[in-house]
Amino acid sequence: MKKIFQVICTVAVIAMMGSCGNKNEFTINGTVNSNMDGQMVYLYNYENHDNPKDSTLVSDGKFTFTGIVDTAWMAVITSSESVVGILFVEPGSITLKSDSIGGTPLNDKYYAFSSTLNTKDIESKMEEIIPRYYSAPNAETRAEIEHLLDSLEEIRVSRTLDACWKLYHENGDNLLGVFAMKNIVQEGTFTYSQFDSIVSTASPLVANNKYVQQKLTQLRNIEATSAGKHYVDIQGVNGKLSDLIDGKLALVDFYASWCGPCRAEIKDNLVPLWKKYEKKGLVIVGLNVWERGDAKARKAAHEQVMADLGITYPQLVDSTRTATDTYGVNGIPQIILIDKDGTILARDLRGEAIEEAIKEALK
Predict the structure, then answer these.
(1) Is the Cα dihedral 289, 292, 261, 48 positive or negative?
(2) What domains can be seen in the chain, in order of their start residue?
(3) pTM value?
């Protein structure tokens, strides 16, 4: 009798546990435009887009993901054409719509943050102005438009950083803190020592994040190749940088054929400067980086941009991204002036500042 009673109790406990469900279960109920009916949507880890975690079909403008989550993680849901939404996968019922997200603690806070991030007006103005930059009839007009874009970008960045710092200080020990710091990393401007100080006081979850660590490495490399330091040699697929610049005043331009601002700098400044200063001791080296496609496509794109823009100065091709990593470059064009003895004189040169730096060096 006692044994039978124990069995009955055990079965009852199991039944009660089953009726309560798994406390780590999550459900994502998404609502999208009905024109997506029949399309697949994919659930990815935000930090790893190699393979989706799950996929499902949109039906009647809705989709659902379910599963078990032991540790919360940030996710992005995409279709074959666009991003559907960004959210945090954590236990509970998550509701995702085109204009809102919520249902669980992290997602409620994330939506509150997104609702207060006031940058859409600035972004709309920039989208209107950008076509004018590319269609500008001359360098002077392009410079005026670029100055306007820079002013708007400064406002956008300031608003974004204010909101992200607030979010970080309130959530430094959870995934929202990681999310905030990643945005601070992307938008902010830091020296290596400044950012190292921030990371040293951050929670392990934030400090050990791969993007945070990558930023530290980048800033360390920028510091190692800043003005006053000796340049670091680069091995390209067609030779070394040192073979082209040693013993010469050198202007090194990190660029790609598809980069609009890169092409503008080459056309408006570098090609004319090459003609003007080649016989006065200046060498310009175009360092072709980040070309897209396979080796054949990259070669064709490089040859085409040289023909299109009339580039005749020496070229070094880096298809491995080693060069940009070495110099901590995360945006192009990046134009660096190096003295005859190999000392870096200036980085981040653009527009009229390029020739001013050359004149000063030639004195």
Answers:
(1) negative
(2) 13-102 (2.60.40), 120-224 (no CATH), 235-362 (3.40.30.10)
(3) 0.76
